[in-house]
Amino acid sequence: MVNLSEFTENLKSDRDTQITVALIIFFMIAFPAYFNYASNSVSSGGALGSVGDYRVTGEYTFIELDSGEEGIADGDTLTLDLHSDAVKSQIADKNVVAVIVNMTYDEDETRNGPGCLAPTGGSFAADTISATVSRGNDTASGSGQNPGGHAITAEWYDSSIMDSVVTGLSESEIMDMLEGGDTGIGDYVVDISVAAESGNGVLCNYNDGGETVAYTVSLVILDYVITPEVDLEV
Fold it and tell me: According to DSSP H, which parts of 111-204 are helical?
């Protein structure tokens, strides 16, 4: 058992005792401070950076989940029930952040009659192709008119910070904004519908019963890089 009086006397006069106590005090202060820093600061390759300015860049990869071409009648809806398991091996350990549906369509309308080639024969009317894609609570919708195409994207990450400098956040906070987690794993539902319109003209009969829509459904993979922004001004 340590004699307090003897220890106190040694502390006053013995250099080794003084050094030992100083080291104990140093480590009692330094270790908690270090571990607190380490828990808040490391880089994407190891330690997460603390609050500061960071440049965010990245690359996207598209994994095709489904594709096809379908004739959709006026007023009808094509529904695609999909699941990420169809590409399970391709997205394993990947950062799935969005789903995109690309569509293209031409003009399936027909016309006939003696006046179709005359200036009064009229013209084809544009049809509206609408689509919705859903993954859980994340949904996107949009429409376009033929001939042409359009795309809709449902995303569950903050795309606004890509290719920019983010200020006032820690690296871990930025990572939270860019990680898709398990959100992209599961069922996907895509609805594509057509509202057809027929043209009209003098002595020219128009007929439009729908449109043929080509589609591709892809999962979006993001590989990002977070780099501390260094102020080079002296």
Answer: 171-178
